[in-house]
Amino acid sequence: MAVVYHQPNAGDFRHSLFGCCDNCSDCLCAYFCPNCYSYCASQDAGEGTLMSCIHCFLFPFTLCCLRHSVRGKRGIEGGCCADLCVSYLCPCCAIIQIRREFND
What does pTM read for this prediction? Predict the structure, then answer.
């Protein structure tokens, strides 16, 4: 059975990058314990346990790879350069955006 996700605009994330402050609990968890939050986001994105552990221990270095994987699964437009910039300039916002993509 295929699961269909509805995007607001074709090729976009459902939540903006700086919409991370909309939910205080997500914002606090991602800021104070980003490794654990990265693990949870990776699990929500359908990554296996091993990959989730890798994302947890190597956060934020593997965040651009997770964003690339999420974009591929959801048909979201973008490129590696944008993923790299977002992942290193605003890792907490990026990981919240990824987790909210699958939880909302």
Answer: 0.84
